[in-house]
Write a structure and sequence with these properties.
four-stranded antiparallel sheet, 2 domains, six-stranded antiparallel sheet, alpha+beta, 6 helices, N-terminal domain of MutM-like DNA repair proteins, globular, 12 strands
């Protein structure tokens, strides 16, 4: 599933290519991608057509595009995008063939690029596994502070790269949680944007075992973990995200190039001490770690 760096790469692409343009027509190729829009596909088409995309925003793994009517300057609704396991937002021109798993298509108003050439006319939502989707949601005040957020994303916690992220509050919440540290990192109501890949990477960087009890975390350990999360995320962002297959791409269809220190490296030497990396069962998935650098205590 795309995590914070991959979603941020998509957000930046949408900001560059789509913001400021009006949705002139909507094509629904698969109604399942609008199942979260409870009023149905036709209502979605009717409400979205004619709206202008005013911004591209993200919190954790959640991505949304604030939209407004032409005569209004302030957005009070947003297209909330769930990428799910395999969702992609791609910009394309009319002459590019439709991808096999294209679910939604938005025809955009013409606009020039920085070079004067016209920008691609379409925004396509492609989703192989159909776990993702869209809905038109109202914007509400954020309980965590900052600007408004879609109502269906209001419960999502701030991510570690957010300027308003409060390390002390996160530490206090960790201590109250009384669970394993990796479970806490995956809890999007506690800290957002971190999935299985970057949780393993951050825990390796902070030299913490995935099962370390949160109620025994010291302030120093929590700060070390936060800094590891931030460093891992920024490194992945600089590389355009992490791609294992064609599902993880930006709006131009380009794959990320982030290198990993522990995730997916079972049996290969730890880059810090040389001990072979091991993979352990965690919930319904796996955790990768160095058994020496990340001893279970």
């Amino acid at each position: 599933m795309p995590e914070l760096p991959e979603v941020e790469v998509v957000r930046r692409g949408v900001a560059n290519w789509v913001v400021g343009r009006t949705i002139e027509h909507v094509t629904v190729n698969d109604e399942r991608s609008l199942r979260r829009h409870v009023a149905g596909p036709q209502d979605f088409i009717d409400r979205v057509t004619g709206l202008t995309v005013t911004d591209a925003q993200r919190r954790g793994k959640f991505l949304w595009l604030p939209v407004s009517e032409a005569h209004k300057t302030k957005a009070n609704r947003a297209l909330l995008v769930h990428l799910g396991m395999s969702g992609q937002l791609l910009v394309a021109s009319h002459d590019q063939p439709a991808p096999r798993h294209e679910r939604l298509r938005f025809e955009l108003s013409p606009a020039p690029s920085d070079t004067g050439e016209p920008l691609p006319e379409q925004l396509r939502f492609v989703d192989q596994r159909i776990f993702g989707g869209m809905l038109l949601d109202r914007l509400v005040p954020s309980p965590q502070g900052g600007g408004p957020v879609p109502e269906h994303a209001a419960h999502i916690a701030l991510d570690p790269l957010d300027p308003m992220f409060d390390a002390a509050a996160f530490h206090a919440a960790l201590r109250r949680k009384k669970t394993g540290i990796k479970r806490a990192l995956l809890d999007q109501g506690l800290i957002s944007g971190i999935g299985n890949i970057y949780a393993d990477e951050a825990l390796w960087a902070a030299q913490l075992h995935w099962a370390a009890p949160t109620d025994t975390m010291t302030a120093a350990k929590t700060q070390r973990l936060i800094e590891a999360c931030q460093a891992v995320m920024r490194r992945a962002l600089d590389a355009g995200g992490t791609s294992f297959d064609s599902l993880y791409v930006n709006v131009n269809g380009e794959s990320g190039r982030s290198s990993l220190n522990v995730y997916g490296r079972e049996g290969r030497p730890c880059k810090r001490c040389g001990t072979p990396i091991v993979r352990e069962r965690f919930m319904n998935r796996s955790s990768h770690l160095c058994p020496v650098c990340q001893r279970r205590r």
